[in-house]
Amino acid sequence: MMVRTRSGLKTYSHLSGGRRLPSSYELASSRLHYYPRSGFEVAVPLASFYERYQQGSPLSCPDWEQFADPRGTTYTSYTARQSEREIFIDGLLSSIDEQHLDRQLSADWLAILDRMLPTARFLFHGLHMLAAYVAQMGPASRITIAALFQAADELRRTQRTAYRMRQLQELSPVFGTSSRQTWQDDPLWQPLRETVERLLVTYDWGEALVALNVCLKPQVDELFMRHFALLAAAHGDTLLREFLFCLYEDCLWQRRWTLALLELALSQREENGAVVKGFIQKWQPQVERGMAPFLPLWGAGAADVRRSLADLMKTQKENLGIHPVPPASPSTEEDSG
Q1: Which residue segments constitute the domains of the chain, with CATH numbers given?
Q2: Checking CA distances to 231, which of 203, 278, 296, 317 falls within 20 to 30 Å?
Q3: Centroid of chain to Cα 127
């Protein structure tokens, strides 16, 4: 309930400049971090870490507080939305058990699943830790909130993948039991694992954000949630397709809030364009190396998957106003003459 104060304000002072009452999202998310303005109350070594890797990041903005999640996500709206999706996924998983659908899967597809699905838990857990770090270092509360919801999405994806693995162990008790070894040693996974682990020790907040949410995660999500879903359907595993498509909806929102945040940074400080471009140029080749070993799984369709991933990266950069430099025209005798 809004209460009029002695000063005549009907809301918090930092929200009183608008011509309307603040929304629930604005009330619950605005200016919750005090330390970017006032510093930490106690002088501890952690303060120098934030000073170097958050406030000292080359990706900076005069007022990060102007960022707003396009979905206006609050805890209440997040839990309500995810509750509906969890009911849908529960229905899919129950159908698999009740109709014994795993018995209908081919041996070839089960072999692919054994190499991919259980091992993906380690990948998704790495993405969870990365999102949590971006949240921890976010210079404004709305950034922290959006990134924390992203981290929760990654935990949900990890947990649901583990549940699906356990279902398949009812069919084959050894299914997924070597997944840790696969993550650590299988040549299929090593370039991607290296990228995740290098990013886990990338402390600059701006670089971690761009590397994760512009370069790495969109590619991972597109490959594992969309293209692998279509591959599952081609092998008769239609419920896995629906399962992955449902999780993919989270990924699309994560791209939207990241774009909104970076658009703000680019509009408020021209130098951020070169900063973001530099981060992308550093991480895009590593991400592409991480994706490349998986493409042969699509057989004759590998070229289409590769093109789709390249088009996604191109769109990501175009949305941020980053365009490739056209090659210089070859000089001619007339030009030089």
Answers
A1: 73-319 (1.10.620.20)
A2: 317
A3: 7
